[in-house]
Amino acid sequence: MPRLAITGTEQRYNTVAAVEDGGRWRMILPFPQDSIRAAALVGAAGLVCLSDDGELCLIDWRAGRDRVRRRLPGEGPFNHKLFVTRDADRIAVYRSHGPKNDEQYFDDIVVLRASDLEILQHGRGLVWHADGPVGSLSPEEAYPPRPDGPAILTIHGDLFEDPGGRLAFIGFRCGPGGSAYGLCRLERAGATLRYDPLPDAVKPYWFSPSGRYAVTPHSDPARGGVPEAAADTGDAGPPRLGQAVELWTTGPVARAATLVARPGSEPPHAITEVAWEPDERAFWIKSGYFWDRTTDFQRIGLDGTRSPVFSFARYDGAKAVSAFADVADAERVEIRFFSDSVYIPRARCADAAPARTITPEEDGYRSRPSAGPSASAVRRFLARSQPVVTVAAFSAAAIAEALDALTGRIRADLGGLLRGDVLALTFEVGGRAMTESAFFARIARERVAVVPALRALLTTYLAVQPGVVEARKLYRQLWGPEDDQGALAPAMQALLHLDPTAHDVFRDYLAQRDGEHEVYSTDVMMRTYIAEAGWRDRAMIRFGVYFALIRYRDGLITLSGGFLEEYGVLDAAESLLEPADFAALILEELDGFAARPDLDCRLGRDDLYRELRASLATTAYGRTVLPALAARSAAPSRLA
């Protein structure tokens, strides 16, 4: 059976839809400029994907081609889910919320025909006919509420399909007749919706595959809440505490039974997940959140039978995220802890003991590094979608020509070269593909004489980058070919290697970063630059002061004095500049830095001045600069 995974890289996160079929992964890039919000398989060869900005596409994943695309109504963000009916005839795109509290939310649902993505039903509210149980979805905005307007649509939990093939969901505070909680079912023919009230307690419902049954934590109407535990009197001896669960039917809507699970001496943890076996004769419950440091599992039969409460010694006391992976296998039940698998042998379900801890020797542990294709395979696949720069040969003339052409492309349409917020390039040199990092590293290593072309490339990029960032509503910067790099980082590093005076370009590159997260420039590129070029002259010392100010702008805190000494600029200044000259240089840089609103520094000039003074005080030479700085400073006298 085909299996679907959504994957990507750290920077191009959730951009690839991968379908495993017969042990082979087929990868698809449905939205080159966007991420995948949700995806689902449709029939034998269909794949439906929803983008973050509301584009829906139906793809034939076997043939690797689009069938149809359309945009959803409304405005983003589209943090929606997808549901496909069993006959693969309908696709529902919807927003819902977990039943955590009694807050109303503004949810919505769009039902489409799977073959052509035609919208069949769209609802942002509900309209009821004469206060009866029958109504319809309304595309009209339900807020603010008004007497003649639709009811606000709040969906609790996931959509499901009932035995009659109708899409259904739990509605909260949106039904007729004052009921706060109910089961809503959409008729396939027409646009009508039927509402059946449920008890008003806010709680989750886990529906069986056919939609015939639902399991929910036990409600006690007399107490108006959900009790933590119920008495278990089915066994001899003193009563033990157990988690009570209710079994409901959906046709008709009725409570069929109350079952007791997890008998033990301690009050049970909350039920956090339910997984139904395919024949719907039993279900598995998981109790406990990862922060409880204990999670256990139990099989409950619809006839009231139950297995021991299972736990895994391997994860005892650990904050481990877990989920059911496979409850259909006849021999064992698979549980995922993070991405790894452990197993409960089905033979253990017949044990008479109320609880059973499965040891590491018997849990069948399997390490599963990835739920989809390997990271290297994903990187190779994404590289094929990157813009290609053709270079006739690895020679100075050919490289300069190719870089000039790339500069023109960036000047004309930088946005068209992006994949999301990432600029990553493939260089085809004499017919052979090279990664962006490898291409520029070779230029630096072989000292290819292309400094003017590199400088033009970077200055052009830095000139047009702010406009693209603003237009796309990105945060501060574009990202580059490696997970921790900014855009064109390999080119910037190559320029610094070939031309030590290029710190004027590096200044702007450092300024146009998300300094809180992009630290490659400051931690790797700067260290390499100073190791190769050194603090060679007054201009370099001036750049060192600017770099310290950038570190403060980035939001870093130093516990050992300050950033003037981070890469040795104070020691270098001692041999090159008199204290008064260095003080003048510091104030010139400080005033220029404080006057640039585009730097978006959280610290004002006075705060930066104090930080630089504290940094100077860390060395003997720096302390000789302090009086000269105070004499020249235009800062308020209280700072001197």
How would you characterize the overall build of this protein?
With about 650 residues, the protein is of the alpha+beta class. It is about 25% helix and about 30% strand. The strands form nine sheets. It has a seven-stranded antiparallel β-sheet, with no helix packed on it. Strands 19, 20, 21, 22 and 23 form a five-stranded antiparallel β-sheet that branches. The protein is elongated and about 90 Å long. The model is unreliable at about 220-240 and about 635-640 (pLDDT under 50).
Number of helices: 12
Tell me the total number of β-strands: 34
User: Measured on Cα atoms, how large is the radius of gyration?
Assistant: 32 Å
Oligomer: single chain
Q: What amount of the residues lies in strands? A: 25-35%
Helix content: 25-40%
Classify the secondary structure makeup into a structural class.
alpha+beta
Provide mean pLDDT, rounded: 90
Q: Distance between termini?
A: 74 Å
Main sheet overview: 7 strands, antiparallel
In terms of per-residue confidence, which ranges show pLDDT below 50 for 5 or more consecutive residues?
A: 221-240, 635-640
Strand neighbour order, sheet with most strands: 14-12-13-18-17-16-15
Question: What coarse outline follows from CA principal-axis ratios?
Answer: elongated
